[in-house]
Automatic annotation (TrEMBL), chains A, B:
SUPFAM superfamilies the record matches: Xylose isomerase-like
Name of the protein in its database record: Xylose isomerase
InterPro entries in alphabetical order: IolE/XylAMocC-like, Xyl_isomerase-like_sf, Xyl_isomerase-like_TIM-brl
Domain Xylose isomerase-like TIM barrel: 27-280
Species the sequence originates in: Arthrobacter psychrochitiniphilus
Keywords: Carbohydrate metabolism, Isomerase
Molecular function per GO: isomerase activity
């Protein structure tokens, strides 16, 4: 019987709940952690959010999201740095060391940071489709943010996104690429998240999870399923574990073998799930976690 | 001014045209090649298809598609081998050395070979979500097909598909993975196709295209764009070059640097394009090819 000691439900999974409701649901469910999106914090203001979190007794497992570092122009780059510094301070105030970074898409197509579903319009620029250049800009902005993150004790957690979002959300598409980006920086400053939805298909996944573990870079293990057919809005094609195509046994085993034994966060964007009663969502997440995820996160003893 | 010497339009781009119509359109457009799907061949029967192709004077640049090699059961595996041998013989009869291989998805989710849009239902099997196992089965079936392909002078052309199709169409997701699969076999027997739609996002694309060229494995360069937002049916999110997010300048240059100077095939699955008058589709393909693709396929002279 699971104690759910390590399960954390991200507010994006119960998107329509307020921060207060999400905290209450997690406490009632016997959880010790919660994952937060910045939109829920902004709804009540940072100060109130900090108070609510403290009163709940929950530990914030991560704050989502910083990033959007691919702007080609000086004004866009300055705005991105300012927004990420604000996110780092919010994370610190909320008591988490982990800020999840969605690095941004091609300048011509990237959505803006903010709400779960992005929003905002991109305008065409010279070289706006050059993904090699966009990736270089991510490396450049990351280097500029690292000192600030170190100073405040917050880790920039790079999230490789599924390649179907490479143009509009993240030119960071694989765990190997994330580890290459992280390599020049201290492990306290730059980590990676293994999100099953985004990386399950990667032929080098086992090897790159092992590499991430050996380098001390795994900051979070996020789980949800990849549903088929892909939802009409491709962003919302996530599902409860077990409803899609992902083999949680293999990936969980690889994460455990890599030495990760931290919090497991469940983050699901799915219109149908958003429309369910919150308590039903939480119960289903707990049941699927206990059945499909947790049993594989035990590190086998050698010999 | 382009002579369109190397442009080939795949019948999937004008899906509703008959084989005879597609041949006639290509000839009228001044093209020298055509790419064929097996459904168009099946509609008239192989013998008639061979006659029509001969009468047109066109060279078949590739036949699409073989593959679907991931069945977990003996009957499914035997059926796949039989179907692929038939495809090899069809390719040979039609005068092309290239049979494009879509390797198949996870056993629990893979569509069946056949029409452009797949079809058929998968049933759950033990280990049916294990992508590592499914990939091993592809390697095993490929090894079984190589002698037959060599005997008939037809090359099995591995097509990495975009990771959003990893579960239902191809567990082969990157060019690097395709080259690893090809490596044990003679270059005359196993090649790879670089299809911009599927690989544009890959952080190791330049390096893997160079590797493919050095190994003599590039059998085809296929171009179309990746449209955003992703179409409600994700299979149909392809677009005319220039309508989506892909940087054809960079990829074309990498392909040219890798030494490829063969046919460029345009294969677009898109409901809106399928509903346009065929001649308008052909004209648009030619214009976009001449503007966005061909200029970058010139190999720069060193020094």
């Amino acid at each position: 019987m699971s104690t759910f000691e390590k399960l954390s439900i991200n507010t994006a999974t119960i998107k329509k709940a307020s921060l207060a409701e999400a905290l209450e649901l997690s406490v009632a469910a016997g959880l010790k952690h919660i994952g937060l999106w910045r939109d829920k914090v902004a709804e009540v203001g940072l100060e109130t959010a900090v108070e609510l979190v403290k009163a709940s007794g929950l530990q914030v497992s991560s704050l989502c999201r910083g990033g959007f570092l691919t702007a080609a122009d000086g004004a866009g780059q300055a705005a991105a740095l300012a927004d990420n510094k604000a996110a780092i301070l919010e994370a610190k105030a909320l008591g988490t060391t982990e800020i999840i970074m969605v690095v941004g898409g091609l300048p011509d197509f990237s959505v803006s940071p903010g709400a779960v579903d992005g929003g905002g319009e991109a305008t065409a620029v010279a070289g706006g489709k050059d993904i090699v250049l966009a990736r270089q800009r991510v490396a450049d902005r990351l280097a500029e943010l690292v000192p600030f993150a170190l100073e405040h004790g917050v880790r920039l957690v790079l999230e490789p996104l599924h390649p179907m979002y490479a143009a509009d959300r993240a030119v960071l598409s694989t765990l190997g690429q994330a580890l290459d980006l992280a390599a020049p920086h201290p492990v306290e400053a730059v980590g990676v998240v293994v999100d099953t939805f985004h990386v399950w298909w990667d032929p080098s996944l086992r090897e790159q999870i092992a590499r991430a573990g050996a380098a001390g870079r795994i900051a979070s293990y996020q789980v949800c399923d990849f549903n088929l057919p892909i939802a009409a809005d491709a962003l919302l094609s996530r599902g409860f574990m077990g409803d899609g195509v992902i083999d949680f046994a293999s990936i969980g085993q690889w994460v455990a073998e890599a030495g990760y034994n931290g919090v497991v966060e469940v983050e699901i964007f799915n219109e149908d799930i958003w429309n369910l009663p919150y308590a039903q969502v939480v119960d289903t997440v707990k049941a699927r976690y206990a059945e499909l995820v947790e049993p594989h996160l035990v590190r086998e003893l050698a010999g």
